[in-house]
Design goal:
GO molecular function, one term: protein phosphatase binding
Shape: elongated
Protein name: (rape) hypothetical protein
Number of strands: 5
Strand content: under 5%
Radius of gyration: 28 Å
Number of helices: 25
InterPro entries: SAPS
Family: Belongs to the SAPS family.
Strand order of the largest sheet: 3-4-5
Helix content: 55-70%
Pfam family, one: SAPS
Structural class: mainly alpha
Distance between the termini: 62 Å
Order of helices and strands: HHHHHHHHHHHHHHHHHEEHHEEHHHEHHH
Length: 416
């Protein structure tokens, strides 16, 4: 409380400890008022931390240490970034032989992000001369706090960095993006796949940038697809790889409006959506047929109980993700990819063919109706409805879809 601060209190507990000749750092950090004293700019405390900052990383109180280091006191942060030995000690936390619990990693992440915001240039200069930091961060990307560091690094705070474009170009010239995308491989866990996908998705949403240009290149798209279609049985790798593809097809996508909005210095700034890289489209179009094959459920034996009975098999998150990428392809307004979906893939024809079979069934009767209930019409399936409604919506402005307007409108009427 305010009456506990040094400026207003005659007997500060922290001052009492500092007055001792043989006090220990553990004793000082164990004092509950230390954070308030530090924020109140206690000169004696700041001088102590500045003179012996190295000891803060080897004590038993990582939480208190992280709070002191992130009080945004320039003298403390300056001492940290200007002494390479202290920076080496800080980033030694990433070494494989260290304990990387969620709690400790959170404290480490808090300190690094504070340095990103307050001491950007010295921190970037340190990382440039210590490239192993990238490898160590990517190896721990399965931890949420480490993922947050990488997302900040690749441009989530692009309006905070004073030399943002230079940093982005340096990151694009490094192999950071390759290492992150390779974490989508089948050998990694679900948590690693999910966090690894967030970083390239952030890059795509912050286009245009050197990193986004690199990510949308044909060689990189091929690298991403290599993980998506490497093993049909690996649904986790497939789902999160498709999330990256959707981000590439929908840069700066807004759920509220067709314009991208962000706040900068208290003002709302609107930007038109960024057009999709033609190289991305050219690489994705030949693989659209592979997306269609993913919808084949003949070999899927999973059972999903529903109010209508058992679905054998269930739709599955990976097929829902395929539906999302088809919608993103339609929304991209790229003539080449829309034409491929409508003609080569015969998208509308396939939907109309499904409509002729109003009951979810086949030769082996995968859907078993519950007693006293009718099985659902296929036209009521959410993913079919969404694709059909999107076709009708886009037909008013897209000449290619206009030629199929009668069929698209008929589909919409059937789904009502």
């Amino acid at each position: 409380m305010f009456w506990e601060l040094t400026a207003l209190s005659a007997a500060s507990p922290v001052e009492s400890i500092l007055d001792k000749e043989d006090f220990t750092l553990e004793e000082l950090l164990d004092e509950e008022d230390i954070i308030q004293e530090c924020r109140a700019l206690n000169i004696r405390l700041i001088n102590l931390c500045t003179a012996d900052l190295k000891s803060c990383f080897s004590v038993w109180f990582p939480f208190i240490s992280s709070e002191v280091l992130t009080c945004e006191i320039d003298a403390i942060l300056k001492t940290l970034v200007e002494e390479e030995e202290l920076m080496n000690l800080l980033f030694s936390f990433l070494e494989p032989n260290r304990s990387h619990s969620v709690i400790l990693t959170g404290y480490f992440s808090k300190v690094v992000i504070c340095l990103m915001l307050r001491k950007t240039v010295p921190l970037i200069n340190y990382v440039k001369t210590h490239q192993n930091v990238f490898h160590q961060l990517v190896d721990l990307i399965g931890i949420m706090s480490i993922m947050e560091i990488l997302i900040r690094l690749v441009g989530a705070d692009d309006h905070v960095y004073p030399n943002h474009m230079d940093v982005m170009q340096w990151l694009a010239d490094s192999n950071l993006l390759e290492m992150v995308v390779d974490k989508l491989s089948l050998s990694n866990s679900l948590e690693v796949h999910a966090n690894a996908a967030e970083t390239p998705c952030t890059v795509a949403q912050n286009a245009p940038s050197p990193l986004a240009t690199k990510l949308s290149s044909s060689s990189f798209i091929a690298r991403i697809f290599g993980h998506a279609f490497g093993d049909p049985q690996s649904k986790s790798s497939l789902v999160h790889t498709l999330s990256v593809c959707i981000s590439l097809l929908s840069p700066r996508r807004s759920l509220v409006s067709s314009y991208f909005m962000y706040s900068f210095r208290g003002q709302q700034i609107f930007e038109s959506p960024i057009s999709v890289n033609p190289e991305t489209i050219a690489t994705m179009v030949p693989r659209l047929g592979d997306f269609v094959k993913l919808l084949n459920a003949t070999s899927d034996e999973k059972v999903l109980p529903t109010m209508y009975g058992q679905l054998r098999p269930s739709l599955g998150s990976h097929r829902l993700k395929v539906e999302s990428i088809i919608v993103s392809c339609l929304e991209s307004k790229n003539d080449e990819i829309v034409d491929h979906l409508l003609h080569e893939c015969d998208l509308i024809g396939k939907i109309l063919k499904i409509e002729k079979q109003p009951i979810l069934s086949s030769d082996n009767q995968p859907t078993i109706p519950a007693a006293g209930k009718q099985a659902p019409r296929v036209g009521n399936i959410g993913h079919i409805s969404r694709i059909s409604n999107k076709l009708v919506q886009l037909s008013t402005n897209n000449n290619l879809i206009k030629t199929f307007r009668f069929s698209a409108t008929m589909i919409a009427n059937l789904l009502l």
